[in-house]
Every structure is written in C-alpha cells, then in structure tokens.
Specification:
Elements: E1 3-7, H1 11-21, E2 26-30, H2 33-40, E3 47-51, H3 59-68, E4 75-79, H4 84-92, E5 97-100, H5 105-119, E6 127-130, E7 133-136, E8 141-144, E9 147-148, H6 153-164, E10 170-171, H7 172-179, H8 190-202, E11 211-214, E12 218-221
Parallel strand pairs: 1-2, 1-3, 3-4, 4-5
Antiparallel strand pairs: 6-7, 7-8, 8-9, 10-12, 11-12
Helix pairs in contact: 2-3, 6-8
Length: 224
C-alpha cells in the first residue's frame, strides 16, 4: 500500500486531504514543520504533501533538511502564494511539483498519482515483480512462480515494501512505521514475528532465503 505524509497546519484542510486520500492510500499527518520533518526523516513514505507556510519551520526548510539527508521522496508543495518566485524556490530546493490553494480534490489526486507513477511507486496496472514473485496491488494478491499464495494484508504490505526497496537494508523501525504506522498500539517486536511467518509462506518456493537478516539493524531483500 502506498503511504503518503501530509504536512499542513490548517487542521480543517489537513483532515479534508486525509479523508480524500485515505480512500486510495495510507495517510499520515503532521501539523507543523518540526513534526513533519521527524516523520519524513524515517524515509518510509512514497510521497510527501508539504505546505509551504508552516509555523516555526516552513516547508522550504523541511525539504532542504530532507534532501540534505539524501532522502529522495517526491514532494508536492501546497502554497497559497501564486508567485513565480515561490514556485521556483520550491522546485530549486528539490520539490517535484506544486499546487496552489485553493485547489479541487480531483487535481490534488491527479498530481499525486502522476508523481507516484513517475517515481515507480504507482504503476498503471498496480503490479510489481521480483524474480518469480508477482504482487497485484488492486486485489492484494500474490503469485509465487505462478502459484497463488494467501497472505494477510500486513504480510502483503511488508513484502511489497521489501520488493520496492530490494537490495536496500530496511531497519526494523522503518518496516514497523511503514506497515503499522506511527499510531499503532503494537510493539516493534511484531516485525520479527511477521518476517518469520512471511518466510514460512515463501519457503516452499525457495524465496525465504532472499529475506536476509542484517544483524542488529533489520532486513534486506536480495537473492541469496
């Protein structure tokens, strides 16, 4: 499931955006720049919707710090300022697109889908592949070497995230925040449990060895 972070200090607008996007995506919210920066730095999001005019740390400062850490998550700026200077600044700081307030929901959704397609997080047919593994996002279905395998939603989301980041070490914290979210009542120990069960589901096809444990850090999906 695609996960989006929305950083907006107007609470009413923030709730409205979350309601719109939650029909299709997982959405986390932050009401100020400092909170948004902390969440963005976890590097678990497919896209960030970032207001420019935030109290304290503004959107330009947030993206500068994010890009300074080499986090390349696509950023869609929201701005009430219809000036060329602000638009140029946002793009120069590493923004990928901008949307001027007030805006209509269909345009917000269209721009988000375009950025997700461009980054590879959203494909036209909602399928991703890794070796003989095929994931069908719309149905949340999985085929291993052409054979359907039943996964729980969380198992599916964990495998999907690993495939999207194949060859990259993912910390337990990243997996936890990505799959369960910041508001979850569970503990981070749930990650090890789900990795164990996911490996068991993949074992008959030999793919369980591809989920490699990186001692003291987390896991990495890579051909053994």
């Amino acid at each position: 499931m695609v996960r989006i972070l929305v950083v907006e200090d107007n609470v009413a607008l923030l709730r409205s955006i979350k309601q719109i996007l939650s029909e299709e995506f997982e959405v986390d919210c932050a009401e100020n720049g400092e909170e948004g920066l902390f969440m963005a730095m976890q590097d678990i999001y497919d896209l960030i919707v970032l207001d420019v005019m935030l109290p304290g740390m503004n959107g330009f400062e947030v993206i500068q710090k994010i890009r300074g850490e080499r986090i390349q998550t696509p950023v869609l700026f929201l701005t009430a300022k219809d000036s060329l200077e602000d638009r140029v600044r946002g793009l120069d700081f590493g923004g990928d697109d901008y949307l001027i307030k007030p805006f209509q929901a269909p345009e917000l959704e269209a721009r988000i889908r375009a950025l997700l397609r461009r980054s590879g997080s959203l494909t036209t047919n909602q399928t991703i592949q890794y070796r003989g593994i095929e994931l069908y996002g719309k149905e949340k279905a999985i085929l291993l070497d052409g054979h359907p395998v039943k996964l729980t939603l969380k198992q599916y989301e964990m495998l999907e995230y690993m495939i999207q980041n194949k060859g990259i070490i993912l910390t337990k914290e990243q997996l936890y925040d990505r799959v369960w979210g910041f508001d979850s009542d569970t503990t981070i120990g749930i990650v090890e449990v789900f990795v164990h069960h996911l490996r068991k589901k993949m074992e008959p096809f030999g793919y369980h060895k591809d989920i490699q444990t990186v001692r003291g850090i987390g896991y990495m999906l890579k051909k053994q």
